[in-house]
Amino acid sequence: MNDTVHPLATLARLEATIAQRAAADPSSSYVAKLNARGVPKIAQKVGEEAVEAVIAAMADDRAGLIGESADLLFHLLVLLNAKGIALSDITDELDRREGVSGIVEKASRKED
């Protein structure tokens, strides 16, 4: 791990790259190809990567969990971009929740 760079800086750079590639030619960019297939396909990929991360965790496969988590974060950023949600929107929500008990925070959510 590069201790001199904050981990969120890496995610911010990746977010910018995804935004740049989203409108590219689908034949030249995986991100553009996913976007061309729409939110349902991107969401499916997020789900697949989440399951693969869980499987790696349950198998006590540290390297696998790291790799699958990277895939999950990548695809989640692609999904957020497709929905017009910035990484800063997520960090703002996490900041809002900081210091609040998980039980209290869940109870405060509006039911759908």
From TrEMBL:
<dbReference type="GO" id="GO:0005524">
    <property type="term" value="F:ATP binding"/>
</dbReference>
<keyword id="KW-0378">Hydrolase</keyword>
<comment type="similarity">
    <text>Belongs to the PRA-PH family.</text>
</comment>
<keyword id="KW-0368">Histidine biosynthesis</keyword>
<keyword id="KW-0547">Nucleotide-binding</keyword>
<dbReference type="InterPro" id="IPR021130">
    <property type="entry name" value="PRib-ATP_PPHydrolase-like"/>
</dbReference>
<keyword id="KW-0067">ATP-binding</keyword>
<protein>
    <recommendedName>
        <fullName>Phosphoribosyl-ATP pyrophosphatase</fullName>
        <ecNumber>3.6.1.31</ecNumber>
    </recommendedName>
</protein>
<dbReference type="Pfam" id="PF01503">
    <property type="entry name" value="PRA-PH"/>
</dbReference>
<comment type="pathway">
    <text>Amino-acid biosynthesis; L-histidine biosynthesis; L-histidine from 5-phospho-alpha-D-ribose 1-diphosphate: step 2/9.</text>
</comment>
<dbReference type="InterPro" id="IPR008179">
    <property type="entry name" value="HisE"/>
</dbReference>
<dbReference type="GO" id="GO:0000105">
    <property type="term" value="P:L-histidine biosynthetic process"/>
</dbReference>
<keyword id="KW-0963">Cytoplasm</keyword>
<keyword id="KW-0028">Amino-acid biosynthesis</keyword>
<dbReference type="GO" id="GO:0004636">
    <property type="term" value="F:phosphoribosyl-ATP diphosphatase activity"/>
</dbReference>
<dbReference type="GO" id="GO:0005737">
    <property type="term" value="C:cytoplasm"/>
</dbReference>
